Amino acid sequence: MNLNANIIKGEKNYFFYGLILYSIVAIYIIPYELQLPHVKVALPLLTIILLWQLYYYRSKLRNIDILAVCLIIIETFLNFSSYHLFRYSLPICLMAIGFSGSPPIKIKRSYLVGLCWFTNAAMIYQMAVYRLVQFDGSKRITLSVGDPNISGLFMLLFFFLCVKIKFKPGIIIALVSTLLFASRNYFFTLIFFFLIRIFEKGFTKIASRMNFVILFIISNFIGIFVGEYFLNNVEVGIGYNTDSSRLFSFNDKSNLLRFEANRLLIQSYSNNLDLALKGYGADYESVFRPIGAIIHNSFLEVIAYTGLPLGILYFFVILRVVSGYYKPENFKFIFPYLFFCLFLHTGLQGLSPFLFVSILAMSVEDDTRSIF
């Protein structure tokens, strides 16, 4: 029995509604430069809502999820820092409990459409205002986060949400932003998405035979191998394109630095067991920024912050939840997102995995007639 199976027909999953509201507001609405400590308020509030919901509906959780939460709590206190607590431990515990059993969760389309309209307006404003100044003085369009690649990640999640609820204005904004952000990862992830849609029948037949956990592990090994191959065999160009032509340029210095960051993590953990157990934590940026780029692999990035024990527990929960939603109707979201995370950071930490899992989980109820 899972949490949502206990919610009787006609009742809302308030935790789910609140989680999506917070994810949308924090990612897209609140300007990043404000640096508001909203997570220290929102996550405890979501925890209270979830615990109340468990009590009110007399919900039963799966034993494996309870065990995972207990192990995460123990590991967190053995290597305690408020940084780990609010960025990794508490969010992943909420995911383990809130999505226990990976059930479809009903949500009103009108609620999501309203949020998407606000998000659309906020992102149009941000793309009109925010710019990242490059080393050559050129400017790249971004969202308020100030990074074109992370802007691409957030736009990709918004695109998935709009596809799920058939919100065409949002889909159009997401497609147009491909050229505005000039993010290679976002551009090729969208191509992957549409290739899956075009060849959906054949792709579904192949993907249905795969185990998602094995796929995740093999994909990340391939991503690391691609980086090593690049470092050892690809001649790096001197120039660095900052305009839309960079979408088809792969041998520039930016990729070299990113793959070197991946290698640095693996080497540092191999040479220092204590570091591998504890992770870099809040020192991550100060260690990796000086080499020119931070880790551009979402799996390795989490491991770098958390260390191996907490990182393994963290991904145990994510893989368990996503595996439950590994169904044909979600393949067009899961495979492109996995591809995106192989070559960029932030995709598997913070609110990004929460919003992604929520998109996979939502069973949209069309309570109003769509005009889009």
Automatic annotation (TrEMBL):
Q: Where are the transmembrane segments?
A: 14-32, 38-57, 64-86, 111-130, 150-167, 173-199, 211-231, 302-322, 334-362
Keyword annotations for this protein, in alphabetical order, are: Membrane, Transmembrane, Transmembrane helix
- Transmembrane helix keyword on record: yes
Keyword Transmembrane helix, does the record have it? yes
Q: What is this protein called?
A: O-antigen polymerase
Q: Which organism is it from?
A: Plectonema radiosum NIES-515
